[in-house]
Amino acid sequence: MAEPSPAPTRSNEPASTKATYFWGNRTKSWLCLILLFAVLLGFYSNVFSLIPRRQTEKSQSSPEAHHVQGQRESLTLSEGDGHLDTCRIPEVPRLLYPKAQLLKPSRVDVLVMTPWFAPVVWDGTFDSALLDVQFRNTTIGLTVFAIKKYVVFLRLFLETAEKYFMVGHKVIYYVFTDRPADVPQIALQDGRQVVVLHVGNYRRWQDISMHRMEMISNFSRQRFLREVDYLVCLYVDMKFSDHVGVEILAPLFGTLHPGFYAADRQSFTYERRPLSRAYIPRDEGDFYYAGGFFGGSVPEVYRLTMACHQAMTADQAQGIEAVWHDESHLNRYLLSHKPSKVLSPEYLWDEQMLQRPPLLRKLRYVAVPMNHTEIRSR
Q1: What does residue 37 show for φ and ψ, rounded to 5 degrees?
Q2: How many Å apart are CA 343 and CA 121, to the nearest integer?
Q3: Choosing from 57, 327, 346, 351, which is the catalytic residue?
């Protein structure tokens, strides 16, 4: 049997066939290299595009960066002309002031720092002169509601504010009222003004209290972002009795309620019904914050008041009204959005209902005696 002929080899092929093999293989090689280059180029372009994003995400994880991002977001809300530089670290000129003593703390009788590193502001824990320089170019807005008969408290409120509140700084008093003609005319320091915002009233005082959050959020978006750096939101049936200055300012701050500053969390009058958006379980809670004194940068106050208003609206749709109305929702918000500064009960006190303890060296903002039933019924 004849042996099969051997398979043809390239050495036996004609020159034209060899050329075809050669250029065919070279073409395949170039195509492979081009494809590999394209894949690598796409991969590395994705990697490098992620680097700035990751750096931004890391930088936004800190409270300071979060606040700066919030200020940038205010650019959209205020259409480009908001106060965007609230968190810039100011240059402090040459000053003479006592050196802090690291081994001799100014207060050992009270908590001066929360577990999340927020200062608790007490007398003796700050230097007003040093802080005044740091905040020298800051404009502070103060919101106060004088609805119905509460307008009678405005004169004392404004007169004492001019004596004790943010002295030496630019201030705009935003007075929300249904009685603009009854807003008193008082002498103001240079760089300070009263702006009257005409709003409607409501039948129940509880509704007035709850709609406060809605109105503050609306006006924050409409004008506060363009006009001030910080907002301080206060009750009107109070008076200033001592210094209240820039030591309170922070991206977000709340004030310890005078009735609960020494209580355990189980005693706090949080909203305890799970169906409410203000619900806080009995095993949760840091402090009980007062509804009569809170604030922060305008973007942060906008977020707080908007969230509280939306939560109250959701509760209303379910037929629920939180036990302490807007104050209940404020406490719910500050539990999940820790304030960057906490004010001691020096900043809100009621001398008629509470005995002053020795740890309160000063009473800065105190309740005015009144007949609640008479005031709230008209």
Answers
A1: -65, -40
A2: 5
A3: 327
